[in-house]
Structures are given as C-alpha cells and as structure tokens.
Design a protein that fits this description.
By secondary structure, the protein is α/β, with parallel strands linked by helices. Helices cover about 40% and strands about 15% of the residues. The strands form three sheets. A seven-stranded parallel β-sheet has the order 1-14-13-12-2-5-6, sandwiched between helices.
Length: about 350
C-alpha cells in the first residue's frame, strides 16, 4: 500500500482519491506501519487509534497551534475537560499558541482574562477575535470616517482603541412609523457598515445599514458568517451569519468577511512570522474552522465538543463531505491522554 501511494504522489488522481485511500490504509494497517503526517491529509483519521510514534510524529509536524475557543476550549463559561491542560502542554513542548475566535462580543483583554480564569495560559496578544480584526483592518487601510455598527460593545471598544468613531451599538426600537426614516436621520459621517453579533438587532437597524450601503463608497465589513453558536442545551442561538445575510440581502451587496474561514487571519499571522505548512488549526465545525485551515494550508484537527456531533462525523466520513479534517478527536483533552498513555 505504501509503495502504491508513493508512486501516486503528485498526480491529480492522488489528490482526488487521497481521502479514500487513507481511510483504507488507516483502518486496515495503521497498527503495523508508521503513517507519516502527510498521509493524514483530509483523512478524518482518529488520533485515538494512532500508535505512540504516529502521535509523536504528528506533534513534531507543527510549530504553531491555532485554536477556536467556543466549542473547543470552553462552552459558555465552563472549560471543556482537559482542554486547558492540552493547550498548556503545547506551550511546554515549545509550540506557539493563538486563540482564534469568530466571537465578536468581547475585546481581546476580556477573552484573555476569561481564558486565564478557566486555567489556560493566555496573553492578550495571542487572542485573535473578530472584534479586534475589524479594528485592525480599518486602521490598516487608513479609514478616517465613522462606522455604523450592527454589533456589540466588543467591536465598539476595539474601534475606540484605534480612534475610530462609531454609532449603532444598543437597542434601536421599532416604532409604529418605522417606514418614515428620512435621509436626514442618517449620519453623513458614516463611511462603513460593520456587522457582527447583535442581540439588539431590529428592523430599523437593517434599514439604516442598507441605506448607508446604497452608496458605493461605503465599506461593508462583517466579522463572520457562523450560522449558530455552540450549544449546551436544546436552545438554538442564531449566530452572526444570520445578521450578515440579512444585510447582504437588503443592501444587495456582499460583505468583506474577516473571520474564519476567510484568510485575513492568515495574512495577519504571516506578518508575525507564521509558516502555514507548520501550523495546526483546531476547531469544532467544518465550514469555518476546518475550511479555514484547508484554505490556508494548515493541518486540521476536528473535535466533537461543539457544533459537530458524532453523527455528523459519520456522515462526513461516509459521504466524504468537504472540507475534510486531517485528524479527529472526541475532545481536545484526549490528545494529552494519548501522549501520557
């Protein structure tokens, strides 16, 4: 099997058939051969089935760890068992660590504090939240106008930190005469609409956002397009993607999305010396975290403590639904247990 795969490397057939080939290799003979890290590509390989040498090889194949937060490291205000110990272990063996979250409701220092309180070693400069990315992006392009924000204080505070004015945070109640919005009710200084998570979203906010975006000179930026938040109960909490799609629909424009799975984060990290080929992305959902890793050329690890369930994983494996993660674990903490076993 190894000889056949070696001959096929570099061919279009190899890349088209690799997931299925790896699935066969892993299920039939992973206990008798040393699978190289390149063979994990899109393999949906369960690391709990790996031998010690395979795990060692996997750990040696990356220098930087990027991890999603909600659903991977914690849910709400509760750390997922073993996640803190595993992330801290990465540091112990010399890995660089970044917390990469599409959550825009907090500023970086708040995320760092939360992580520390839950047992993670974390520094503000290691937090890459979409609230920070919005402020960083607008500052980097020399934006001098005002932002109309459908979002929370997390984005607003990050904008304040770089000297960008904004309006729109908080309730904008629907009035009986809501259709009577006039051009004079709009702020002439607004030059960008930013959409993130906003628990106070309302029809007037959509009207204002679309009206500002009627001008081609008005920028349209979104934090992320996640459909929903990871849940700890049967209640579904719609994510920022719900709001972004609504504004895109009524404005007839497409937003520049800065969060995962889009590549702005990679460009930001490459300015800090990131090597994509030596980077691991950990996440709980395929259409953001794993897609982000695949687009950027990272290795990917999918965990089942957030959005993706065991049933979802079986469907992904059976139907080979892209993007396919390289490796999977029930929870991140299992990796440390494997290392210590």
């Amino acid at each position: 099997m190894c000889g056949v795969l070696t001959k096929l490397i570099g061919s279009r057939f190899f890349y088209n058939k690799l997931p299925s080939l790896l699935k066969v290799t892993a299920s039939v003979s992973y206990r008798s051969i040393n699978i190289s890290t390149t063979m994990f590509k899109s393999a949906v390989f369960d690391l709990k089935h790996a031998e010690k040498e395979q795990v060692k090889e996997f750990l040696n194949s990356f220098d930087t760890v990027l991890s999603d937060c909600d659903g991977v490291l914690w849910i709400d205000n509760n750390a997922i068992p073993g996640s803190a110990d595993t992330m801290n272990y990465f540091r112990k063996i010399g890995k660089r660590v970044f917390f990469v979250t599409n959550n825009s409701t907090k500023i970086r220092s708040d995320f760092a504090l939360k992580a520390q309180q839950l047992g993670f070693i974390a520094d503000e400069n290691e937090i890459l939240s979409t609230s920070y990315l919005v402020a960083h992006y607008l500052k980097s392009i020399g934006f001098k106008k005002k932002v109309y924000l459908i979002g929370s204080n997390g984005i607003g505070d990050e904008l304040n930190a770089v000297g960008i004015k904004h309006v729109g945070v908080g309730p904008d109640h629907v009035k009986p005469d809501f259709k009577s919005l006039k051009p004079t009710d709009l702020d002439s200084e607004v030059g960008a609409v930013v959409v993130g998570f906003d628990e106070h979203v309302s029809y007037p906010k959509f009207m204002k956002a679309a009206s500002y975006l009627a001008s081609e000179d008005c920028l349209f930026v979104a934090t992320n397009t996640d459909e929903r938040f990871p849940k700890s109960s049967s209640i579904v909490v719609p994510g920022s993607g719900t709001l972004v799609r609504a504004v895109e629909t009524c404005s007839e424009r497409k937003a520049l999305v800065l969060g995962k799975p889009h590549e702005y984060i990679r460009k930001y990290l490459e300015s800090c010396g990131l090597n994509p080929a030596r980077t691991l992305m950990i996440g709980d959902r395929c259409n953001t975290d794993i897609e982000f890793g695949v687009r950027c050329g990272f290795q990917t690890l999918l965990v089942l403590t957030g959005v993706t369930s065991t049933r979802d994983l079986e469907k992904i494996r059976k139907e080979q639904i892209a993007p396919l993660p390289d490796v999977v674990l029930p929870k991140l903490g299992d990796l440390l247990e494997i290392v210590k076993s």
